[in-house]
Prior knowledge:
Mean pLDDT: 93
Order of helices and strands: HEEEHEHEHEHHHEHEHH
Distance between the termini: 29 Å
Number of helices: 10
Largest sheet: 8 strands, mixed
Number of strands: 8
Shape: globular
Strand order of the largest sheet: 1-2-4-3-5-6-7-8
Amino acid sequence: MSDHESGAIRDHGTEEPIEGGYVWIDVDDCPHRIYYERAGSGERPLVCLHTAGADSRQWRHVLNDPEILDRFTVYAFDLPWHGRSFPPMDERTDWRDDAYRLTTEAYADHIVSVVETLDIEEPEPAVLGCSMGGAIVLELAHAHANRFCGVVGVESTAFAPKRDLGYLGDPSINAEVVRGEWAEGLQAPNSPDRFKRESWWVYAQGGPGVYTGDLYFYATDWDGREKITEIDTDACSVHLLTGEYDYSALPEDTRSVAEEIDGATVEIMDGLGHFPMVENPSAFREYLLPALESIAAE
């Protein structure tokens, strides 16, 4: 097993193949300063979408995987308000006092704008998203199939109203603690502790209201139950992967999505939870690589 597969700690001075940078995008005539990372030399772009309340650090193992980087050039970015990306950089927007609420339309627009601005439209990129990222890829396959060759939805659902916890916006709650503990519990019991702690740490950070603002998309605004029946997998292939221990996006939820999309593939990942790319990267890649191989061959 390689160092990457085992998740081994690198030797002192090891430089990873990841490059980071910032790019300005416009969504609804509002400027946003976006942080993104890139690695690889493959012909086809692969865009990775983080989970609610998190950031692109979740994709560090994919961004370091030599086999993936040989076939794809991998991009991962932080949505506005997340990670190293700022809220809207517009003097007309009083973002500190306005409640952040992510909508389906704005989410898709941000992804498309990043792709256009980074000039990664040809050949058509693939998109890999987890959790709320696994939901929005279904919207992309439905409404933007002309822009993307295929999507991989990890922990995907078409409708998840129960995801809104309802209490994280309460000022009496220590959200930095609760978010991390919530993320910890969504991971498989057999996943290595040192990786599960990465999810805990990412979720222990973040601006006030950002996680609940993301949940507005995931639990309120997003309803893809009718849209997914119209997805044309000849135009944009759909591959679905869900961990068997995920009680947030249940395996049966993902199977229900696959049943409504003619030509979609679905795999339930043994021994994995809601954050497979973080909590057990070596096990996750055994499911991810065949999906990516299928997209690369299209």
